[in-house]
């Protein structure tokens, strides 16, 4: 009971009228289960589907939607799969020639000299 009064006093002393801050009984209760994790979900799916992993299930569902002629669902699967595939495959590789690297170094040193007031040697 003393803690509740103390918490209430802390809230009253706040400049915003007691909104925000610590609340009695707020938060996860002691002994509650862990947060849901992606690893836990994937393990649960694999267990409940007798060893199939998520990718296999996704492909099966995509093919079922396609075989049923459900074009809206098929398009959604296409977008889901392509977004995942494109994000993992899309990489940009930049290569500079020796001349380009030298020009960048010169420009950088000139800009740095202007900023610091040092003379170029």
The description of the largest β-sheet is: none
Q: Which structural class fits the helix and strand makeup?
A: mainly alpha
Kindly state the number of beta strands: 0
Computed Rg: 30 Å
Basic shape = flat
Distance between the termini: 75 Å
| Helix and strand pattern | HHHHH
Helix content: 55-70%
Average pLDDT reading: 79
Q: Would you identify the regions where 5 or more consecutive residues have pLDDT less than 50?
A: none
Q: If helices are DSSP runs of H or I spanning 4 or more residues, what is the number of helices?
A: 5
| Percent range for β-strand residues | under 5%
Describe, in plain words, how this protein is organized in 3D.
- This protein has 121 residues and is mainly alpha-helical.
- The chain has a domain at 37-91.
- Helices cover 62% and strands 0% of the residues.
- The chain is built from 5 helices and no strands.
- The chain has helices at residues 2-12, 38-48, 54-68, 71-89, 98-116.
- The protein is flat, with a radius of gyration of 30 Å.
- The model has no long low-confidence stretch (mean pLDDT 79).
Which features does this protein show?
single chain, mainly alpha, 62% helix
List the helices and strands and how they pair.
Elements: H1 2-12, H2 38-48, H3 54-68, H4 71-89, H5 98-116
Helix pairs in contact: 3-4
In short:
The chain has a domain at 37-91.
């Amino acid at each position: 009971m003393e803690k509740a009064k103390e918490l209430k006093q802390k809230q009253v002393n706040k400049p915003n009228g007691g909104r925000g801050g610590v609340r009695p009984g707020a938060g996860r209760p002691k002994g509650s289960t862990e947060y849901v994790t992606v690893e836990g979900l994937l393990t649960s799916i694999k267990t409940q589907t007798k060893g199939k992993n998520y990718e296999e299930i996704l492909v099966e569902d995509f093919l079922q939607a396609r075989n049923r002629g459900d074009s809206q669902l098929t398009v959604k699967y296409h977008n889901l799969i392509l977004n995942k595939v494109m994000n993992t495959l899309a990489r940009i590789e930049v290569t500079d020639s020796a001349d380009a690297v030298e020009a960048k170094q010169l420009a950088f040193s000139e800009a740095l000299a202007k900023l610091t007031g040092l003379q170029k040697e």
